[in-house]
Each structure stands twice: as C-alpha cells, then as structure tokens.
Amino acid sequence: MTNAPPPASGPAPSGEGRVTHFGFETIPEGDKASRVRGVFERVAARYDLMNDLMSGGLHRLWKDAMVDWLAPRDGMRLLDVAGGTGDIAFRVKRRAPGASVTVLDLTEPMLLEGRRRAEARGIAGLSWVVGDAMALPFADASFDAWTIAFGIRNVTRPEAALAEAFRVLRRGGRLLVLEFSHVAPPLLERAYDLYSFNVIPALGGAVAGDRDSYRYLVESIRRFPDQEAFADLVRQAGFERVGWRNLTFGVAALHSGWKI
Amino acid sequence: MTDWDGDDPAAEAAEPAGGSRAFDPRMLEALVCPQTHGPLTFDPARQELVSRAAHLAFPVRDGIPIMLLSEARALD
Fold first, then answer.
1. Fewer CB atoms inside 10 A, N or C side of chain B?
2. Which pTM was predicted?
3. Are A98 and B1 inside 8 Å of each other by CB?
4. Pick from A33, A130, A139: which is nearest to B67 by CB?
5. Complete DSSP assignment for A62-113
6. ipTM, two decimals
C-alpha cells in the first residue's frame, strides 16, 4: 500500500468534533453525506460505465452471485439500500416476480434513473424511496432481506447502517453486503493498486469529465475495512452465522449475516 | 403479493404515463417517520408526508418520498 496516506487522526469520542473519511481526506462527519451525494449526483447517468471501469465489467457477475446467494422467492420482502439504478432489484424480480422490492437511495437522480430503467424494461411492482441507510423510514421487523451492493463504503457510519438493517429485519431475516474488498495475493494487490489509483481516475476524467469523483471512489475502496474486519462489524450489529465469500480473489467480497 | 405485474387498476391509475407521477398511497403501509418510527399521513395538496410526532413534513417529488431529515420541513 505505497499509496496509503498518513493515517487519519482518531475520531473524537462524541459530539460535533467527530470526523470520518471521504476517500483519503478526513472530514467532519456531518459533511460526508452531502459530499457522497455530490459524487453520485454527478456520476448518476454514467454509473454503469463507472462500475464497468472499476471492476472490468465483473460487477455484473458479482451482482448475479449476490442474488444467487440470496435465492429470492415470491412473497419475500426485500429492502435494497443504495440500490438507485435498480441493478439488484431487477435481478431479484427476474428470479422472483412476486417478491416485494423496495429500493432506497440517498440520491434522487439515481432513483429516477432506476425508475426510468424499470419502466423501459417493463418491470413493475418496485417501490422507490429516497432515504438514509442510517435512519431508515421503515418499521421494525418489516423485511425478510436487506441488501446493499457497492454502497456500504459510502455510508458515513457503516455500523449505524448495519444496526438499522438489524432493526428492520424480522427474526430469520438475511443481510447481504456486496462491496469492493481487499485482494488477497500481494502481487495481484500491487497490480490492482496501480490500476485503480492511476488508470481509473484518468479514465473517469476522460470519459465522465470528473476525475475527482472517481479518485474519491478508488480511495474509498482502499479505506474500507478488509473482509475480517467488516465481518466483525456485522457481528457487532447483532447478526449471527456471519460469513463471506471472496469474488475474483477478493477484489469484491460478499458478506452474509442472519438475524436469529 | 399478486399485484406486482401491474394488473391492479389502482397501480395503473397511480402511475400515469409521462409527466409528474402521483404518490402511491399504498406506500404508507410500509413507510414510517425515520426519526420517531411513528406513522405518517399524506397531504396531497402540499405533496408531503407528515410525521405529527416529529413535527416534520417530508416532501414527495415526482411520486418519490424524500425521507431525509435534512430535506424535511419543520412544522409549528
């Protein structure tokens, strides 16, 4: 990790002085949501392209793997968080047309893009809600499954989002988190670092005219806890039978937990 | 859940083709106030979801409820 910045100073215990990370910057906690919204409002229309660039097209297969593991059934009540453009929701509806899917996202443009795509594909029966993963507008125990794909690292306090997931899931409910993670083989990790820190922001600048947003996305991936550390956060939120699967040598990881 | 495929006439009426969308009141069955987890009521005139307990009104824009405290209007 030669590109790693000096470690951020530890967060203050409480109050207004709390800080979080925005990529490799350390910023006040209160600023993160609006800055993340800014990134996604700028990239919404090119979001698929961005995912393709960052994953070499593999994000489609990883999302398929996530829905495979979820094994959706008709009647399942699913909340897909940060699911703006509908990638997970559409896969679930294809597998289980009778599933009840609510898509929640922090940014309106992402949801509008998702709803437009749903209509273009003739997929009905989805609910679209702008909301905060850390303060969900849903009652306790109201979902059978809670999913988030490439969204948890953008949440100001991921542990607060996991706590909310636990609250809105029923007993026996399932949590699934798909996120870029930490590549296991060291040589591969170095190659991936070179690619992601040098190539992706340049591509983002060339293709979307927004180098800084793409640099944020790469940095936020590196700042995110590794597989073991994130599994600990899932356990601390109350989930049991916690596990994960590496996808493509850990470029992404799929985390699972149950509310028992 | 059998009405997902759009056969439900209420769903058809709630989503007119093109233009601004209507809020589907059936969403009130699932939505609660993100602050109090209490119930919400829909004000069609203002296009707002009102949480009496929190004294907050959440906007509905183009049929999509905006359930963010940062976007909510404080009520007297």
1. C
2. 0.81
3. yes
4. A130
5. HHHHHHHHH---TT-EEEEET-TT-HHHHHHHHH-TT-EEEEEES-HHHHHH
6. 0.80
